[in-house]
Amino acid sequence: SPVSDLNLVFHNPALLGADLHNQFAVGYLNYIADINAGSAAYAREINANSRWMAGVRYVDYGTMPWTSPSNELLGETTAQDLALTGTYAWTLSPYWQAGGSFNLLYSVLDEYTSAAVAVDLGVYYRSPDKLTSFGMTLMHLGSQIVRYDDTYEAMPWDIRLGLSRKLEHAPLRFNVTAQHLNQRSMTYLNEENLNNLSWSEQLFTRVIGGVDFLPSDNFMLSLGYNYRRVRELGIAQRTFFGGFSAGMMLRIKQMTAAASYARYHAGGNSLQMTLSFNASVFGL
Fold this sequence. Notes:
Blueprint: E1 23-30, E2 36-47, E3 50-67, E4 73-91, E5 96-109, E6 112-126, E7 132-146, E8 158-166, E9 172-178, H1 191-195, H2 199-204, E10 207-216, E11 219-226, H3 227-232, E12 244-252, E13 255-265, E14 268-278
Antiparallel strand pairs: 1-2, 1-14, 2-3, 3-4, 4-5, 5-6, 6-7, 7-8, 8-9, 9-10, 10-11, 11-12, 12-13, 13-14
């Protein structure tokens, strides 16, 4: 199997490998301010060449001020997002896998609601020596079917590529992920400044790099760097560790626990924790 953590299948459905049969996974993200997110998923094998997964994800944006157009404070309001996911993956060859996910999305913004459907498609390759892996995904291909108001909003579809290479004689693995490859220009607040980026800066705004330290099959330390986050937070709140993230993974028998931490600016950071295990641990 390409991965041992079912939570990663949300990012590429082709990662749903045979070793994830009967696995259950949960995740929790404590984000900036009072924003929280969570997920749960379960997978089973259909036959030797195909598997399915069912999952749910949510985001609770906490409480926010409710104001009138003239900025008069009227009280507080809330917002939540929910996604129901069904995934099917199959083996193409000993080295290639493919997968697809169907997502039913539902969103509540105070008294406004919206719904959408989206499909994620992915492929995954792992070299015969198991040192190199490659993945490609088309994310969020779909349409809004219930609008918040009279305005139609397009789905934020995305093309992503990932490449990983483990050194043969050292416990290190290098990872590169490219996102937003379908966008011609990457802009945020200062559009004029970002549109004048050199070709190399335009490239790095799409790339996330990382390195894993793997002293054994049961323990891993990770460090990542996101250049785009540095660009977007390159204002007064920027900190020395902006753009960096760190994580660890520990596997004990049939259970895998992982945690990651990312620093955004002086007033915000995120902590994510995941747990995955084979349901046979509980006799299922």
